Amino acid sequence: MPHAKPAQESDLAALLALFRVSDVSAAAEGSAAEAIWSDILARDEFAVFVSAADGGIVATCMLITAPNLLRGGRRHGFLENVVTHPDHHGRGHGRAVVAAALAAAWARDCHHVLLQSGRRDPRVHRFYEACGFEPGLRIGYVARRPRETGKPDDLAQ
Fold first, then answer.
1. Domain layout of the chain by residue ranges
2. Is the pTM higher than 0.85?
C-alpha cells in the first residue's frame, strides 16, 4: 500500500521530474525553483506530501493553510498541485498524498479544505470525490493575471 510522507529539501529534483512527465503547467526550473522550494519548506502554512515507488517520487500535493477570522477562527485549507505520474495512476499514490494533506489540515484545525480542478476528465473528478471532496458546494472563480508584453502565457490549468 502506498505511503505518503512530508517532502524533504532533497526532493526538489524528483518533483521537477514528476512535473515534467505529467499533464501539468510548466514548472519553475533552476535557481528560481530552488528559491521557491526553500521558501515553501521554510513556511509553516505550507506542507508538501510525496509518495514514492520505483526509486522516485510518483505523486505529490501541497496543502496551504491560512488564518481566518470567520468560522470561529478555524483555518482555511487549500489543496494545490495534486500530481501523480501517468504510469502510476490507479495504484493509490494520489490517494495517499491527498489523505496525508487532509490529515494535516484537520490537525491544523482547518474548517474545510478547498480544491479546484480545471481538468475535464471525469476520472479526475471521481478521484477527488473518492478522497472525500464534495462537488458543487461552492462555485470557483478565477481572475487571470493581465497579459504582460513579451512574456509567454501559462496556458495549462
1. 4-130
2. yes
CA 80 → CA 54, 62, 115, 149, distances in Å? 24, 5, 7, 28
- pLDDT band at 151, cuts 50/70/90? low
- Superfamily classification of domain 4-130: Gcn5-related N-acetyltransferase (GNAT) (3.40.630.30)
Q: Can you tell me whether residue 47 is helix, strand or coil?
A: strand
Rounded CA-CA distance 49/60 in Å is 5
C-alpha cell recorded at residue 2: 502506498
Contact 61, 75 (CB under 8 A): no
Q: Is the distance from CB of 76 to CB of 111 less than 8 angstroms?
A: yes
